[in-house]
Design a protein that fits this description.
The protein has 376 residues and is α+β, with helices and mostly antiparallel strands. It has nine helices and eight strands. The protein has helices spanning 31-63, 70-135, 151-156, 158-221, 226-229, 251-261, 281-291, 300-306, 365-368, and strands at residues 10-14, 21-25, 309-310, 329-332, 337-343, 346-349, 358-361, 370-374. Strand 1 and strand 2 form a beta hairpin. Helix 2 (70-135) runs antiparallel to helix 4 (158-221).
């Protein structure tokens, strides 16, 4: 093959004046360098194309990875449902702790106000005594130290109190006691406030995780048909018919009537009603029995662990629902989820976030994850 003759290259560019074109001839000595640069460009282009082909090949291979089967999706959903239920009950427990801490703080604030009133009255009296003793030469320390608004500072001046207590021991003892009471109440209130802040942080972290789990569940559910979604977790019954079979005048009848009245109310983490604010599973059962005049624990674990158990098996060990009565509370998935039995093989349940309170059959997920039953 003949080598083509080198042809002088002309490089053109637009001048800055009125689009005028200028020509530039490549020097003869630069032809070899130009040819070498061309070879280099060829190699770079070749390598780039090869790399791009490899990337495309990898991408195509990733896209071709097998999708999870329906069984795998259901198993993952079941795992997420259980995790979400357990975390939801932990959220309820922290809410209870926060409520108790707020109540405790209210009591401490009232105590602090009461002790402050006593302390201030005693402070004025001790200030009068100290002033008289100081003027008469019976005390050598400044009166201001004894009349401080800080109970800690007063207690720190024990030597001054000792000087005064020779003549006024009863009043000084009362002043010391008032100072200690006020100081203890102030410190306890400070600890309670710090605990409330920590509990609020704990709630925020748990709700963030719960919301993340909810998104994962929704993503997985979208991969299943409505029929395939049945039985992968709580809910899915959608039933609203039927009336309470329990005697209307009994406490169980009132509890059952209450849950029937909440059908269609939204599921909300940590909620105990009314309907506009929603319910979670144990919030529904505890509110129902509270409506009936019976106080039961708020959290599912405590409900199932503290109330009298109802047998679910015959003497031979076979499962039976014949001992269940309307109003009984059923525990599922390690007692992380509860619902109320309403008779006829059905229960009413606040199932999962995004769903509403509904009547469902004691079958499918509910039957396979049933742990026990209790009767308030």
């Amino acid at each position: 093959m003949r080598t083509p003759l080198a042809v002088p290259r002309v490089m053109s560019h637009r001048s800055t004046d009125a689009g005028e074109v200028a020509s530039e001839r490549v020097p003869a000595g630069g032809r070899k360098a130009t040819r070498a640069a061309g070879w280099r460009r060829g190699w770079v282009i070749g390598i780039s194309l090869a790399t791009a082909s490899a990337v495309v090949g990898i991408g195509g291979s990733a896209a071709a990875l097998p999708q999870p089967s329906v069984t795998q999706v259901k198993a993952k959903l079941a795992e997420l449902n259980t995790k979400s239920a357990k975390l939801g009950q932990q959220y309820d427990q922290v809410l209870q702790q926060l409520s108790a801490a707020n109540q405790r703080l209210k009591v401490l604030n009232k105590e602090t106000a009461r002790y402050r009133k006593t302390f201030d009255a005693m402070r004025l009296e001790i200030g009068r005594l100290a002033a008289v003793a100081y003027e008469q030469g019976g005390a050598s320390s400044p009166v201001a130290l004894l009349t401080s608004e800080s109970p800690q500072q007063v207690l720190d001046q024990s030597s001054i109190l000792t000087e005064l207590s020779i003549a006024n021991s009863s009043q000084i003892d009362q002043y010391r006691a008032a100072s200690r009471q006020l100081l203890n109440a102030q410190q306890a209130a400070t600890r309670a406030r710090a605990g409330i802040v920590q509990l609020k942080h704990s709630l925020a972290k748990r709700i963030a995780v719960l919301n993340k789990l909810k998104q994962q569940q929704e993503t997985l559910l979208a991969q299943l048909t409505p029929t395939q979604q049945q039985g992968v977790g709580p809910g899915g019954g959608g039933g609203t018919g039927g009336g309470p079979p329990a005697p209307a005048g009994s406490q169980a009848g009132k509890a059952v009537s209450y849950v029937y009245a909440q059908l269609g109310c939204p599921y909300v983490y940590g909620a105990t009603g009314p309907c506009s604010q929603g319910f979670d599973c144990s919030g529904l059962t505890s509110s129902a029995w509270a409506y009936a005049g019976v106080s039961i624990p708020r959290v599912s674990y405590d409900q199932m662990g503290s109330l009298p158990a109802v047998p679910l098996h015959t003497s031979s060990g076979a499962f039976t629902a014949k001992y269940l009565e309307p109003g009984d509370i059923l525990g599922f998935a390690g007692n992380s989820h509860v619902g109320m039995y309403v008779g006829g093989g059905y229960l009413i349940d606040a199932p999962v976030p995004g769903a509403n309170v509904e009547k469902v059959a004691l079958s499918g997920w509910y039957l396979s994850n049933l742990d026990g039953a209790v009767r308030p």
